[in-house]
Specification:
The chain has one domain. Helix content is 84%, strand content 0%. It has eight helices and no strands. Helix 3 packs antiparallel against helix 5. The protein starts with a helix and ends with a helix.
């Protein structure tokens, strides 16, 4: 695969990178550190999928030049002032995700619940855009949409498993 095609693939499917990093961290925690299955994967997903991805997305949404590219890829008007508000929410949860690496169980629970609500509502918004505006742009209907639908469910499922001792 040519370099340009690989870069294009990663631009369109960047959530996949963070999910794979979270899985790798979960496997490491489970097999090497001997952590509980749910705890190992929650830790990996919190750090990579919530923390680092949140901080990266916040930086993209805050910077006017990269936000303009994002606006085009999601089919929003360029210069959308909502980008900075989105950056603030993503930065807040990004910091919570990174801090979860060092935090206690209750901290993990609050981070997962808040992040899951935000992310799932973002997915609902994308689905509304898809249905009523026919917005099939890559950041509205691609990997990001699937990530926003399934990762909250995965995180809450793992949280329930962890809290119930499985």
């Amino acid at each position: 695969m040519p370099r340009r095609a690989r870069i294009g693939f990663m631009n369109e499917n960047f959530p996949l990178l963070f999910v794979l990093l979270g899985i790798a961290a979960g496997l490491y925690g489970f097999f090497i550190d001997q952590a509980d299955f749910a705890q190992a994967f929650l830790g990996g997903f919190l750090f990579y999928c919530v923390g680092l991805m949140g901080l990266m997305c916040a930086a993209v949404n805050w910077n006017r030049e990269t936000a303009a590219i994002y606006d085009i890829r999601i089919d929003y008007p360029v210069g959308n002032p909502f980008q900075r508000e989105s950056a603030a929410a993503k930065a807040a949860f990004g910091v919570l995700g990174v801090l979860s690496f060092f935090g206690a169980a209750d901290f993990w629970t609050a981070t997962i619940i808040g992040w899951s609500i935000m992310t799932f509502i973002m997915a609902v918004s994308r689905l509304i855009e898809l249905k009523y505006r026919g917005n099939c742009s890559i950041y509205n209907s691609g990997a990001l949409l699937w990530y926003e639908i399934f990762m909250p469910m995965v995180m809450i499922f793992l949280l329930v498993l962890w809290k119930t001792g499985f």
